[in-house]
TrEMBL record:
This is DUF4142 domain-containing protein. Residues 212-224 have a biased composition (Low complexity). Residues 64-195 form the DUF4142 domain. InterPro entries: DUF4142. Keywords: Signal. Residues 1-31 form the signal peptide.
Amino acid sequence: MRTPRPTPTAACTLSAALSAALLLGGCTALGRQSTDGGAQPPGVTAENAAQSTVTTPWGPLGPADRLLITDVRRAVLWEIPLGREAARRAARPATRRALTEIARRDARLDDLTRETAARVNVALPDQPTADQHAWTSEITGKSGTEYDKTAVARLRTAQGLLYARIAAVRASTRNTLVRQFARQCATVVDGHLALLEGTGFVTGDTLPDPPAVTGAPAPGAGNRPPSPAPAATSLVS
C-alpha cells in the first residue's frame, strides 16, 4: 500500500516548506538579522516584538534564532512519546530500535534546548503543534507494518524540515550560542535521519518533492558516463 505523503501544515505543505527551507527561506522568512539590539519601546505590537532582535552576551538574538529553539522543543515533545510507543507497537525490530533510539537522543536534545533557552531568555512551549498532534493521531490509528511505514514517513519528513531550518540558522545567525546550538542540533537530526533511513521504510513515495532550483546542470547525453573531471588542483594556479 502506498504510504500517503504528509498532509498540509497550517502555513504551507510540507514539501513546499522543505523546498523553501532548503533554499534558506522556509514558510517563515529568516531574513537578514539586524544588529542594533536593545529593548522595544513602550506600545510596541506583539507582531513587531516577535520580529525584533535583542542584545545578549553572545551577540544579537533574532527571530530566526528564537524560532529554531522553539521548533526543536516542539519536535522533541512529539517524537519522544512516539518513540516510546513504537518500542511496544512497531511491527519490525528495525523500526522499534530506530524510534526508541530517537526518543533517547531527543531526551538529551531537550536538555540542551532548555539550557540554551534559559540562557537567552526564550520561553519554550509545553505542547507540540496541532500538526504534530495530528501526525501522532494518524500514526497511532495504524497497526502492523502500516504503523511502521506511517511513523517513519512522518518522522522522516519532519526531520528533513527541521534539518533545513537548522542549516539556515547555522549559516546566518550572529549569535555564537545559537550557532553552537544549531551545530549540535544538526548532528542529532542527521543521526535521526540515518536511523529512519535504516528501517527500510524511507522510499520515494514517502518523501516530499525536491526543491525547485535554477542553474542545475543538464543530465548527461546518452548512456555513456561523462569523462572523469580533472583534479581541481590541476585547474588552479
